[in-house]
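Run log, item B.
One chain of 590 residues. Sequence copied directly from the ordering sheet:
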Amino acid sequence: MSENRENKGSSENIDHPTTVEPTDQSKLQRKEIPAIKLKKIRKGPRCIQERSFPVGNQSFFRVFQGDNLTLRVVAEDMINDLQVLLHTDVNGTGNWEDIPFTEVSKGEFAIEVPLKKCGLFRFKIKYSFNFGNSWYWDNVPYSTFYVDPAAVKSIKMYTLIPTISGHIGDWITLLHHIKDLGMNTVHLLPITELDSSESPYAARDIFAIDYSYSIPGDKRDILDQFESFVEEAKKLGIKLCIDLVLNHIGIGSKIAHFCSDWIATDSNEKDTLKRAGCWDNLKWVRWEDLAVIKYDHAVNKVRHEIWYYMKKYAIFWANYAYYTGGMVRLDNLHSTNIQFFHYLNQALRQEYPDLVVFAELFTDPTTTEKMVLDNGINLLLATPWFNGFARQMREFIIYNHKIYSQIRYIFPLNSHDSGSPAQEYGGVKATIPRYVVCALMGTGHTGFTQGVEFGIPKKINFIGRQKKLELSEKNYGYDFSPLISAINRVFDESPVFRTGGNLHFVDEDHSAIMAAYRFNPQNKEQGMIVIANLDTSSKQTLSINIMKHFPFLIGKILLEKISNRNYTVTTGHLDIELEACGFCILEVTK
């Protein structure tokens, strides 16, 4: 099995022996001193006094495929006849090119470069004082930027739990419900063959779909059935998020049985297989059903086999996500062998250039920033349920907007690992105001887990082959679908919700109400005021100081986007009264 893998399964170079003439070791032989060639372009004198982009060895920023790389520089005073060029490898041509800036006013130069390809790119400014006869480098390091797939701009993710959703035919039907909700992405928990614990994250065979998802009476291969689900998702404009589980495998898996040397060992275990786990606060939680894959195996040949096989697993399933313009989710990236992840990430980027990489990464901010910079991770998972109170949530949202130019988070209402909104936020009616906060105060990436739209009271148990769970208003007493659809429509209609750094809280640190202004970065007098009452039992009132926050609103009309009610601003304060778990979305109109 390994003959064809040894030269493929590692990022290391494998040297081959060559014939070398013997040297006379009896005489001292001086080595060659290399010459330094004079560079045609050298570091220049201070010339640029202002740049619209960050500089520094660890500085980087992000832009979207299909948008323009827009840069501006301002030269020092009293410099005449200046020419400015952008030296860059943008758009992945393989060659560096020089693109001229345009002088838009005296000493101010601007450039817009269409971004056609995704990936990591760099640039540096160079300039000339004498009509291009001599050129000098800007006296700062190269700048780095990532071009993210256009799909990253807007993510409304619905987490589908296969073990409670019947067969693949049922999933196809469910896609139409998800589309009606206004969601554009489906996160599908792992559908690989279940091991004895029947957890989706404990696979028996990582290349096979579990038999329980097969459509009754359908004679097609189960992969053919699944591919009909993928085709329907693409037809409906729904992107798939495929969950990749890289760190561990079921203890009864094919890998553990046939390739036990691929598994880390623990002499304290009867089967010698080291168990995976995670930290829950200061307590280590051990997962009895999961064995740790040994990516750092000491034997090169075995390590190459592991890396090659797991790379093929990732590429196999990522193919379905890529077909729909979607993404892969890297489960527990903080536990993944970093050298293997570098290798895998390069392979995925080469195979699927526009694939969105979404990671569950829980570590310190410095490590997070380095991993994002080194690997171009497009999205990380945020956990707003750990910040339940209004003050905590404000701080969390402000942080997400502050780092938006470098790191982008999916800001979901809940996840399959968290509790339901009723469990996390004090009552099922908290679902809608909390979704308003996550969807309309975040940076364009949100979602929730299956069942939330019907007010499911408790977290869904996704472990075990189960009877299909009937999720409906009849069973749980709620149907939030119309309001979720309306909120998503507002999200889609206004681009202020699909960016970052354009949020200003106007609630004066209210104990229950969160209110924020989402403004157009090009014109701060255009935007949306989003207000949500997080109190699950009491009516709350907020008085917004118009003269402090919105002096330009005096005499203007505010349109409430869901009820279509108009508010005319005639005084220095705007008083808003909201029922328990109420909300409003006010558009600034002429």
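Observations after the first pass:
- The chain has three domains: 42-148, 150-247+300-497, 503-588.
- The first helix runs from residue 168 to 180.
Flagged for discussion on Thursday.
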